[in-house]
What we know:
mainly alpha
Amino acid sequence: MNPVPHDFSPLGLFLAADPVVKAVMIGLALASIACWAVIIEKSFALGRLRREARALAGAAVNPSILHEGAADLTSVALRAGLPEWRLGQGLQETDGEFRARLDGAMRKAVLKSVRLAEPGLQILATTGSVAPFVGLFGTVWGIMNSFTGIAASNDTSLAVVAPGIAEALFATAIGLVAAIPAVMAYNRFVGGLTGARQEAMSAASDLALRLSRTPRQQLAE
């Protein structure tokens, strides 16, 4: 009797796998889906943050922008800086101290707002570092089962060994599919957020300097 051909398609390998290997594959697939959801969300968030940082830099250069519908980071900076500016410079306060007070308030508020875009990066970092090892665990477990089956059947032909090894290696492949995009996206987003944060913080300092030199009558309350 000819042996029943084994299904080497991804679905066939999954269905024929050991329950432990199946659990590994499912976990890796869910991690990959979560990573892609984070990647899509962070792509939009990073683009928005860059636009807001540029708008904040524009407000520092052109004060007339302050009277228009400001971008979010600009609004955040102004909500933090205007109350300090309205208090005015204290009698014992130098120009530098007054400017530093405005700068500290605005930079703190901007930094807090920028950090709202960071949650979710931990998922990418964790998946990128752990997924290959989880896949490798599934592979090792599957190969152990294959060798156990070989010992029980006393048949070492390739037709007997190949299906079990293919199912085991499929777990490693899924781990790499989950990990590679996660690592690439994590590095991209970390670099992008760092650049946007630096630009926003520098723009907040410039805006604080501009505000400290602006008489109250020149800025409508």
